[in-house]
Please model this.
Amino acid sequence: MINSNKITISIVSHGQFTLLLPLINSLRNCEEIESIIITINIPEKIKKLKWFEDLPIHWIYNSSQQGFSTNHNNAFKMCNTKYFFVINPDVRLSNKIINDLILLKEKEKINILGPRIVDHQKNHIINCRKFPNIYFLLLKILQIPQKEYSFKENEKVMYTDWIGGMFLIFSNDDYKKLEGFDTEFFLYFEDVDLCRRARSLGLNVAQAKNITIVHEAQRQSYSNLNHFKFHIKSYFLYLKKYFLNYNL
Model:
């Protein structure tokens, strides 16, 4: 039975338990939360602190490493609330914005919503983006910066093609309609793909203009060879899925 007044939050740790502690702490006293599902994706030392008892945390321990899509889809199976939040462990927020985002989502009738993103120095991070095309990799190699993209906006939100998976809000119904993330994408481009499928179904994607979180982005695809390989593999999977039958 769906609880219309509560939310479920999915967080995945990849050896990031220490990193996610400030996020968990910020969710204390957030009355909208029914369940926080934390997936431990790789073996790591977990110290369950006394104040964890103040929160409705449910733990998933993977026996083998899973991708972004599979982890959040598995967490959604435990979601019995109207809204489902996907949040990265390196996000920093105040618990007040949870309610602010829900109210905004309902008022503007947004299907997939994310907040405005800044780094720890309060610099704006581009999160409203146009769908990648066949020239995406070339632009990356040439280090041509992405531009913020929206095709419509008002004083509260920017409507765009896709927003990043570090913080996404769905209704339970919309996540089911989309059948979650495509598990073919192990890491990277799963958010692009999901937003693209959403747009094709007539669902909208938007970013809040005045509700902000801090994202302490790890940027591992730039510094870690394995993550870079995942990024490239996912890009070509995306090309195959959406451009293979197109006249290029």
User: Anything to note?
Assistant: The first strand starts at residue 3 and ends at 13. The helical segments are 17-26, 68-76, 96-108, 136-141, 172-178, 190-200, 220-223, 225-243. The chain has one domain: 3-243.
